[in-house]
């Protein structure tokens, strides 16, 4: 061994800091949960909703296909003939009983894929917990959207802005029979309160970032994109400097938020005295 090899051997422990040094300029992934949350994927599988047509009629026709395809056997549906004087859905039948047991549900979305009328889709909200088993079994009254087309928001659910929009987004990004020529084409009915939902981009490149909420994810989760989709100014040393600036701004906001909380705590203590 030469002199250079001896020096390398003596200082080889510095190699253990290589990975640490690489991560110094990378975006932090730690957040002040639940006050601060990371943007969710547009195709996030969360709590189900039962949609309605724009005229207010329910999309569910009580066919029980969702219950039949469910691998966890967590869905229970019973259909009933529509009353002639006051029909609930446009078909001959409607979903009279609809229940989902979230102690069993694995959010595979097979029920969404099986539904012939696009009645059941999934929102982005998955942060909900229960204190008893009865709350974990959602009934039709809790699953059907309200008169504005928005999901029913229960006390034990942590809803954030945007989590009720673009439900079933993954379904609007796929093409029938895998034919990319039809990818991005609108092939679904309108929903109450939302109208015709925008299609989401897939392999063909069709899509609307503003409508589907993909833009925020491209800014925050850039590492998930293809190399060709990442802007040149975000690569190499320029990218490291850009990320370091983002971290610095974020750290300043966190410090300001912490100071505000401390000031509020002190004010509360003074008021208590």
Structure description:
With 273 residues, the protein is α+β, with helices and mostly antiparallel strands. It has a domain at 48-164: Alpha-Beta Plaits. The chain is built from nine helices and five strands. The protein has helices at residues 3-10, 18-23, 65-69, 110-114, 133-136, 140-143, 209-212, 214-220, 236-272, and strands at residues 48-50, 75-81, 93-101, 120-122, 137-138. The strands form two sheets. It has a three-stranded antiparallel β-sheet with strand order 2-3-5. Strands 1-4 form a two-stranded antiparallel sheet. The N and C termini lie far apart (74 Å).
CATH topology of the domain at 48-164: Alpha-Beta Plaits
Q: In total, how many beta strands?
A: 5
- Structural class call reads alpha+beta
Number of helices: 9
**Per CATH, which architecture of the domain at 48-164?**
2-Layer Sandwich
Structure at a glance:
The chain is α+β, with helices and mostly antiparallel strands and 273 residues long. Helix content is 29%, strand content 9%.
Give the key terms:
273 residues; Alpha-Beta Plaits; 29% helix; single chain; 9 helices; 3-stranded antiparallel beta sheet; 9% strand; alpha+beta; two-stranded antiparallel sheet
Describe how the helices and strands are arranged.
Layout: H1 3-10, H2 18-23, E1 48-50, H3 65-69, E2 75-81, E3 93-101, H4 110-114, E4 120-122, H5 133-136, E5 137-138, H6 140-143, H7 209-212, H8 214-220, H9 236-272
Antiparallel strand pairs: 1-4, 2-3, 3-5
């Amino acid at each position: 061994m030469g002199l250079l090899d001896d020096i390398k051997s003596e200082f080889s422990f510095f190699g253990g800091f290589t990975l640490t040094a690489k991560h110094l300029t990378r975006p932090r992934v730690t957040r002040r949960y639940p006050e601060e949350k990371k943007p969710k994927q547009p195709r996030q599988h969360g709590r189900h909703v039962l949609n309605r047509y724009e005229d207010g009629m329910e999309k569910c026709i009580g066919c029980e296909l969702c219950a039949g395809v469910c691998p966890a056997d967590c869905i229970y549906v019973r259909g009933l003939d529509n009353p002639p004087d006051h029909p609930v859905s446009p078909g001959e039948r409607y979903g009279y009983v609809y229940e989902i047991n979230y102690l069993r549900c694995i959010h595979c979305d097979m029920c969404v894929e099986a539904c012939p009328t696009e009645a059941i889709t999934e929102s982005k909200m998955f942060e909900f917990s229960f204190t008893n088993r009865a709350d974990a079994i959602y009934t039709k009254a809790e699953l059907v959207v309200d008169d504005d087309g928005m999901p029913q928001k229960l006390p034990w659910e942590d809803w954030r802005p945007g989590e009720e929009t673009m439900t079933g987004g993954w379904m609007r990004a796929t093409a029938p029979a895998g034919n990319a020529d039809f990818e991005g084409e609108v092939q679904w009915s309108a929903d109450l309160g939302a109208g015709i939902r925008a299609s989401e981009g897939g392999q063909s490149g069709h899509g609307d970032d503003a409508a589907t909420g993909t833009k925020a994810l491209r800014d925050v989760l850039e590492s998930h994109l293809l190399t060709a989709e990442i802007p040149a100014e975000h690569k190499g040393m320029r990218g490291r400097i850009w990320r370091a600036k983002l971290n610095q701004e974020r750290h300043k906001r966190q410090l300001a938020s912490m100071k505000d909380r401390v000031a509020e705590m002190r004010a509360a203590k003074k008021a208590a005295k």
